[in-house]
Amino acid sequence: MKIFQCPSCRHPVSFEHVACANCGTELTFDSSRIEMTKLASRQSCRNREIIGCNWCVEGADWYCGSCRLTRTTPNLGSTRNIMLWRRMEEAKRRLLYDLSRLRLPLASRSGARLAFDILSDEVSPILTGHLSGLITLNLAEADDVEREARRVAFREPYRTLLGHFRHEIGHFYWAMLVDGTTFQAPFNLIFGDQAQDYQAAINSYYSRADRSYDRSGFISEYATSHPWEDWAETFAHFLHIVSTLDSLAGLPLSLDDRARRTLTDPYLESDFEALLSLWMPLARSINELNRSLGMRDAYPFDISPAVKGKLHLVHMAISAFRGQQRLAA
């Protein structure tokens, strides 16, 4: 995520800011132009007062483009749920920023719009997942203590709210970028045959007694459960990479000419090798900084040659889709 500037005093402001810390100007994010603007000149989202949504609305709408995608909100009868919903929507806005920078549409080939159900499990258990463009998220994942308990229980090295969003959106884009396209055969070769029974594979995964797996072939343990999950995990990691490189672009670091060209817009970089050559030392550096602060590695993963090939396929599928969209226009 790049650093934005206050439109009044040019002081650096973050993606989530509702006001400039330097001059006090109230801010709103214009998602169509990807820039911070003055609230006075734009209408704010109705959820600004409730959950601090800082996106502006379009036309006569009451809600911004991000909030309109939330089909179902959680039970807001408690202050805790409102706080957790706020965190959910903040993560969703970051996801939508990623998709906008990648120039990926928010509707399927059939025209069905992407939608989100954010539900609390006070009455019955809620499973986070994706089905035909509808992403369901358990509000409890926004609770740091609950999410950490689940991370430990599932023996995961990494579990974040934004990671959930990026994983589930990977399922949505598999149908658009791979299914029935020229990437179907390469997908089956690299990720495996997606025709195998999904539910049976997931049931088998959760019933395993031996939790070891081939770390040279998969980015995570969950990626071994089914080729669709392997794709979703890999897609999420691709978003981790380009988003973090976008943040790197705004830091006061000494970089060579090729690195600076890549960081002009990592989301649209056509050279996959250029992305990876920047990402690998950056990931190691972030981990070392975290260790110096007594924290866990921020990116506790190794990108093996096989995983690199899978990431490359994600990059090629996204780039090919953008190329087709340009020709169609």
TrEMBL record:
<feature type="domain" description="Zinc-ribbon">
    <location>
        <begin position="4"/>
        <end position="76"/>
    </location>
</feature>
<dbReference type="InterPro" id="IPR031321">
    <property type="entry name" value="UCP012641"/>
</dbReference>
<dbReference type="Pfam" id="PF15887">
    <property type="entry name" value="Peptidase_Mx"/>
</dbReference>
<dbReference type="InterPro" id="IPR011201">
    <property type="entry name" value="Zinc-ribbon_6_bact"/>
</dbReference>
<dbReference type="Pfam" id="PF10005">
    <property type="entry name" value="Zn_ribbon_DZR_6"/>
</dbReference>
<protein>
    <recommendedName>
        <fullName>Zinc-ribbon domain-containing protein</fullName>
    </recommendedName>
</protein>
